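Case study: histidine kinase.
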Amino acid sequence: MCYLSFILHFLRNRFSFFRDGIKDRAGVQYLLGVGSVSIVALICNSIFGEAEYHVVALILLLVVSILAMFLDVLPIISAAVMSALLWNFLFIPPEFTFSISTPQDALLFLMYFVIAVINGFFTSKIRKMENISNQRKEREKTLELYNTLFNSLSHELKTPIATIIGSVDVLKNNREQISTEVKEDIYNEIEIASQRLNRQVEHFLDMSRLDSDYIKIQPDWYDLDEIIHLVINANWDETSEHSIVLVQENEIPLLKIDGPLVEQILYNIVHNAVQYTPPGSKILIGRSVEQGKMSISIKDNGYGFPEDKLGLVFQKFYRLPNTRTGGTGLGLSIAQGFAKAHNGQISLKNLPEGGAEFIIEIPCEINYYKTTEDETR
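Here is what the predicted structure looks like once written out:
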């Protein structure tokens, strides 16, 4: 019975796409149900002998159970009734009649009829209840995601906007009283707030593209070291108390990748390391290429991650408890999404000596014959 439940569950999942395609077509459902039991009954009639009609009953019950996974109630009841009539007509002695010769066979037929109808009815009802439950869970998940997104927007966008508005207001109302040095500081605050605002908007747009499966990579030949240096320079303003080092143990060839997406992957991970490691931390970036795959390692000597949270850091809007304010919990999720768009992945582990290591692995074409034209591209 356990094995039968497992098989039915497996088949139900496999046929879900088929069920969705016929759920609004009643005529097709009736034809499919009646036709299926009729075909199976004719096949069994050519295989099994007169004495094996009990085995045929089990086979027909299995067919009715499978049909109940994707047919509505009335079509499945029709199929169950048809299976009982066919079983009686083709298999119960005397064959090819609707008469039953013995009380035992009459009772057996009645039991089969009741079990087939009840089995089809309740299986269909259970499936309907499961669909309702799944829809309710999806609505709850969507509502939770909306609330999280709203809270993130209200905080992450409100803070830089308030900074920009406040700074501009100070400049307008105290134009002549403010010294040049103070003005420069205010301009820097506006620039930092604007960059933060722009980064958060880009994160939400990137996550929207990932959720809608709109991401389509555009591979071209890129110098990976050049991309890494761009990421280091982009984090330069926030690394006064950190050190970011590219470990270049050997030269690597050109790679056919989507350069802007890989740059965004690296930026999100490096920026995350800069934000959540203590002052004085060192971030090491290593890279290697072998067997049609590029690997990038990003190590830090910070506090690492709780072992029970390692599998959660790539989830949307997830932020470790008791971490500093700032950020929406989207950066690492977007990085993982962009890596998967390349048919790659990002893994995370804690280092024995302390800190954490992100490993980016992306399959790609490799150009081992770098030409002058390639290098000047």
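For the exam, be able to explain this: The chain is about 60% helix and 10% strand.
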